[in-house]
């Protein structure tokens, strides 16, 4: 496994916002914040509870939980979350995870499709933890998932490398407006690590084409990407979904920054378009009107990170105070704080 570790070290070094192996053991999320997050969202079984979504668990949440445990230098918590993930979600025969686990129904898994962003988060966290903590079993599991992602969800269409949101249901063969993508599924910081785990030139193309596509997704008066985008012709909001810049899309600027993609024009357009009086909001793309204004510090930190990257603006005190509320914004807040603390401490 030495080759995998060498590849991962090299790939991690390529990631501007990632934690270099030499210093990763120094927690980028402080113990109090991680303890508060665990108390609110981590079940003793190891599942991360999405308390804003019927208390379900999903592959995205498990991947986020593992990444945050790694950033908190908490191997025992990482293993706890990974145990639930591998025993309850890795049920498919292709190496990918089922996307949803519902405590309110039996069997707990009723939809065996995967969610590509969740799989990538899990593989990424495993790779980082395996490299840092000398756990070859984590690296092997990460490599299997990366290979499955490459085989099942990375696809070329019309000269572009795309990340399909799931292995089923999103291609041109699956729907008349396919392929359909979700631009918030591109986790730019993780893609070079996927390339180390499952070597292919397709990963670099995927990252480059993701940014290029994002620049063309300027829908409605606010020139924002939709949550779900049809690429059967020029990009347009996909059929059967609300034409909106919604909750998933809010993380796109954070993913760009954490991935070292600090294109000021792109970040500024996204921040301006997604904000109402400086506060993030979900947006009706047809009218440009805000649907829900999101004042939670976990949502607002996305704009705070962009302001730091673009203008060197310090984070407001409210962003630095972590008091977990709902799973999703609380997760975004810790990811934002970890990034600023590592890469832009001048903004603290």
Automatic annotation (TrEMBL):
UniProt signal peptide: 1-24
EC number from the UniProt entry: 3.2.1.4
Domain of life: Bacteria
Keyword Hydrolase: yes
InterPro entries: 6-hairpin_glycosidase_sf, 6hp_glycosidase-like_sf, Glyco_hydro_8
MF-aspect GO terms: cellulase activity
GO biological process per UniProt: cellulose catabolic process
Pfam families: Glyco_hydro_8
Enzyme type, top EC level: hydrolase
Keyword Cytoplasm listed: no
Keywords, sorted A to Z: Carbohydrate metabolism, Cellulose degradation, Glycosidase, Hydrolase, Polysaccharide degradation, Signal
Reaction catalysed by this enzyme: Endohydrolysis of (1->4)-beta-D-glucosidic linkages in cellulose, lichenin and cereal beta-D-glucans
Ranges annotated as spanning the membrane: none
Protein family per UniProt: Belongs to the glycosyl hydrolase 8 (cellulase D) family.
The protein's name: cellulase
Organism: Rhizobium phaseoli
